[in-house]
Every structure is written in structure tokens, then in C-alpha cells.
Amino acid sequence: MKWLKLKYSFNFDWTIFIIPLILSIFGIVVIYSITYGGTGQHLATNQIVFLSLGLVLAYIFSRIDYRLFKGLYLILYISVLLLLLLVLFFGDKIFGASRWIELGFFRLQPSEIFKIVALIITAKLYSDWKEIDYKKVLLSCLLIFVPIYFILKQPDLGTASVIFITFLTILFISPVKKIYLIIMLAVFLASAPIAWKMLKPYQKQRIEAFINPTSDPRGSGYNVNQAKIAVGSGGLYGKGLGKGTQSQLNFLPVAHTDFIFAGAAEATGFAGAAFLITLLSILIIRVFVIAKNAKDAFGMYVAGGIGMMFLFQMLVNVGMNMGIMPVTGIPLPFVSYGGSSMLTNMISIGILQSIYLRHKKITF
Question: How many CB atoms sit inside 10 A of residue 93's CB?
Fold first, then answer.
């Protein structure tokens, strides 16, 4: 037993464990500095609890053979689908969006869970299918787009876009004929006017503010302008933790979630922001290496999807904080406040560890 534990520890990929831990601690410090002296002082404490639980889940999922999820994909799919329907009818409304289920001690966001479930389902299908025709591609689209529709109804455009991008990533690296992807993208672009009509008024205002931030600086463009001011005012080394005027004086809205990068840049400057982006980039590169070295197609698809999930969330969150991407409410992985997001990310790390360890052929 001692030999098994030693061998497990030796082959453990510490890079994809230590970097998320550092990022999470960095995020907790920034959350505490942003909410210091205000009404949200408990948020940092909550995030410590989420991180602790997430580390436990990461370890548990690293010990589970990731291939077992292939046989559970239908149960996982139906369970999350029911949760998404439950949210639409009985979910808690916050800022006009119904995305959470109140459990008393915790608010569960099922759409975050579906990020992982969608990867498992898509990876399972495309790793099992020997020959892929258009009917199978349509079947996979149906299985993924039905829950995406429910997520858009919450409304949660950000999470829906993350799931859609990771779905496309798996299709891209699979042996599916690329003509199907071209047709899918063409249909997606052709349906853009319909999608625009389905957007909520505030979502349309966000996109319009992205195209022309000066059109409504005190309304839809306010958040982005304040975030850009916060990022720029940080200078090289920042104003210091708890000393940022934009975050401390509440000029920067939701600085602990959507705009935490701006809050971090204001406090730690260009140096801290560069450190944050560098760590995330190293993590993402390492995830893609694990995908490349996976021993089977299922592991490659899952790891590749997780890598793209982290990459897309980083690009969009940092981009919207700097005014080069529209505001969609996508959190910065491991850094932004949120229990469901933290747990989902840590479960992803556990699955990645499982893929890495099975590549190393560890005997359990």
C-alpha cells in the first residue's frame, strides 16, 4: 500500500494541481481586498470553503478511472437536463437571471455542471463512432443544443457560448468530415439575425456598447469603461491590495466576479496581471499536452475540451475587462468568485489528473 501511494504521488502531475491552487489563492486575496470593509466580507471566506471542497473533489476524481464516465453519460445527461428545467421554473432570480438552485448552504448553478457533462457526452459519442455521417452529427448537435437552449432561457449567454465552443473543439479534433463543420458554422452565421431577436434587451445593449462604448457611457457602456479605468490606473505595480479607488469606492460593478481581472490589475498592476495570464497560459498549454498524450480518443477529446474551456473563458474574461470583447458574464477560471464555477474547474482538474495517470499506466 505504501508503495502504491508513493508511486501515485511520484507520477502525479503537480503542474496542473499547483497552478490552479495558486490562481485560487490569488483570487481569494483579490476578493478579500475588493470587499474589505464592505458588505461582502464573507465572500472571501466562502471562496476558501469552495476551494477546500474543490481540492477534495479534484483528488477524488483523479482516483476514478475517467473511462467510467462513458457508461454514465446518459444518467449524467438526464440528471443535468432535469436540473436545468428545475432552474427555469423554481430557480432563484438574481439581477433578472434565474440560474441558481438554492440548497440552503449553497447555490447550485446547473449550467456550470453541464460544461463537464457536455464534454463527456460529446467525447463518448465521437470516440465510439467508427464512421461518422451527417445523421450522427445532427444527433450530437441535438443532445447538446437542447440544454444550451434551456441555458439561454435563464438567460446565460456566457455559459452557453463556452459549451458551444468546447463542443465545436471536439468536433474539430475528431475525424468528422470538415464539410459538416463548415455547414454548421454557415447555419450558425445565417441564424444570427434570429439569435439577435432572441437576446434580452440588456444583452443587446452590451453588444452595442462593445461596438461603440461611447454611445452610452453611463448606461450599457459603464461597466466596461470603469473596468478599463481600473486596469489602466494600476500602472506597473498597482495601487496595492485594498487601495484601489475603482473597486473600493464601488465604481467597478461586480468586481469579485465578472470584472475581477480589472480589480486585480488595479491592485497589482501590469506585473500582477501578467503573472495571472502567464499562469493560466502555462496551465492551458499543459492541459493540451495531456490531451495529446492521452492513451485513447475519449481521454483526448475530454482533455482537449477542458483546455479549450479554460482558454476561451480566459480570453473572453480578460478581453471584456479590457474592452476588446463584449460583456457576457464569463468568469475567470479559478480566480472569479463562485462556488459552482470553482467546483466545476476543480473536478476538471481531477479528470485531467486521471487521464494523465492512466497515460502513465499506474496500477490502482
Answer: 10
